[in-house]
Design a protein that fits this description.
The structure is a homotrimer. The first copy, chain A, is α/β, with parallel strands linked by helices. Chain A has two domains: 194 residues, 2-enoyl-CoA Hydratase, Chain A, domain 1 (Alpha-Beta Complex), CATH 3.90.226.10; 34 residues, no CATH class. The first copy, chain A, contains eleven helices and nine strands. In chain A, helix 1 links the parallel strand 2 and strand 3. In chain A, helix 1 runs parallel beside helix 3, helix 3 runs parallel beside helix 4 and helix 6 packs antiparallel against helix 7. The termini of chain A are far apart. The model of chain A has no long low-confidence stretch (mean pLDDT 96). Chains A and B meet through helix 3, helix 6, helix 7 and helix 10 of A and helix 6, helix 10 and helix 11 of B.
């Protein structure tokens, strides 16, 4: 379902469950792979990828969500919401660089997981990334809204959450939703190269992770009621 | 002054008062058209347009602002500020998709009204959108600053409010201020097509409108002192 | 070290200390030039430039930081942090338009100083702007993080602070980090032209400076817990 491989400083997390839909079992397997990354020391970066020909991750495991008893392999339905969101929170603050190789569709929870990574590379010719809740009549939870808001420019954010825009690779790149596009064949190699380049930043996990916490964590400095000028003028109070 | 037409799921609000300058009468007529949109049910989207050859909306009705007694058709001067701002707040949270067809200049209050719509299409070859307060020596009210900040990327926001930048269609599109540009002849058709596409999202007004309230309303989740990671990790507290 | 010249409405602040590295002496000389700009009246704009062939400003004066006693010309080491940050806070709220002509590398504190200006023009063919703290293992102070966050779109912000991205001129322009690029030979002329165009906005320093305070100062309106719709609907409370 989830494999983790290591080649020198680059960890590769491979999602290998078809459409890679999220249920509690999938969340926990993903979490175990992160445990292994976090237990390592030295330069490190994580690449997340999918083996499917068409999907990066197609969202929640809806069959299981609607009838968990009929799909016991999906795990405990009750704890899913909290555990999934917490895993996303863990990815966004992972103390090593994270690169997401989006080889195909990434919808809903799949898009969220991609966005929690530091850098996104998307297939240039096919596939959409989309937060499709409005389209299918679901409320977007507030933590998910906050994720989109903190990762996307204001205009791309609004189109994403309010109109369920289906971003192609080139459009997503132009709007700042992904950083790179690539042909399907070169996507894995580019992701690996970027991970190798970034891995030295992961060597100092305390520094690299602490800053992510300051950006995205509790009482994030970015969300202070005061603006940059005030903080600069009173820097002793805001180290 | 303001006409509202309906063709299947698409409402078209036509401003037909020359430069379409804002006074209390104009605000109230605009509001009546919104009443009609909001009283409808089923799939719906709103297109706002102007009949003028050169102007979408050229800002406040300055003649009336400076001498309301000489222009009684403009209505009650005392209540204008609050009613205008409240109308803008109503547009930005309208529970159906809103598309603005900017056929010509949109200055000051005209730019504000365009920005309160969900999607903007601008004529590609002529016309400027501009918040010209700094240029003419006026203070931008804080709610207007907040509107620009919540709708524009940080860099486009600053140029808009501090330097009264006159955005052309192509520049506005590149900066994320408008989503589309079109030739003058095709602008109405494109606006109508987009409205037809988006109208199904308006069928569920409670969902579609509630999310706008959560984005732009009281204690908006985006403005929490906490960042995305904290909200994700404590999602039970921030549904 | 720092020269200030005036030609009609355009002040030009020239950094003439090689790599223009920041120590307390440099901060105070820069501040004296700002005193002179602020003491003027009438239309005014500031251009900041460097005489070095390769560097705009290469960051902190590290030799002095590490051994201030061996470099007494750098001034009082103890007060540096607070005085530098306060100077940045002063630039970002300077009540006249400020244009930064980035002729070469701008690293760390050099990038901060550029970003505190209103408008940036960058050499198109060579030179990087970069916040290199993560690269060299230093914590970015929170006021600096806030500065980047308030000036850059969300995606450019994250790459800048978390990955110490070295922005070229064209990439920086595409991402909204600088507003213009130019050939090295035309950079000074373009900066001067922009300053001349913008100088009239500086004539009303109270208005122009007050708005910068409202954007970037204490309890900045942009950082209200409420969104734009709420502020618009309750505009009487948020003038």
């Amino acid at each position: 379902m989830i494999q983790l491989d290591r080649q020198d400083s680059v960890f590769t997390l491979t999602m290998d469950a078809g459409e890679n839909r999220w249920n509690t079992t999938f969340v926990r397997e993903f979490g175990k792979a992160l445990d292994e990354v976090e237990a390592s020391t030295g330069p490190a970066a994580l690449v997340t990828r999918s083996t499917d020909a068409k999907f990066f991750s197609n969202g929640l495991d809806l069959d299981w969500v609607q009838d968990p008893d009929a799909h016991p392999e999906g795990g405990d339905r009750e704890v899913f919401g909290g555990e999934f969101m917490a895993l996303m929170g863990r990815i966004i603050t992972l103390p090593v660089p994270t690169i997401c190789a989006i080889n195909g569709h990434a919808f809903g929870a799949g898009f969220m997981s991609a966005l929690c990574h530091d850098i996104r590379i998307m297939r240039e010719d096919r596939g959409f990334i989309c937060a499709n809740e409005m389209q299918i009549g679901l409320k977007i939870p507030s933590p998910e809204l906050a994720l989109f808001r903190h990762k996307l420019p204001a205009n791309a954010f609004f189109e994403t959450v309010q109109f369920a825009r289906r971003w192609t690779g080139p459009d997503a790149q132009a709007a700042g939703v992904v950083q790179h596009v690539a042909a399907l064949e070169t996507l894995p190699e580019l992701a690996h190269q970027l991970a190798e380049q970034m891995a030295p930043l992961g060597a100092n996990r305390e520094l690299f992770g602490d800053q992510k916490e300051r950006l995205f964590g509790e009482n994030a400095i970015l969300n202070s009621p005061h603006g940059a000028a005030h903080l600069l003028k009173h820097s002793a109070d805001y180290s």
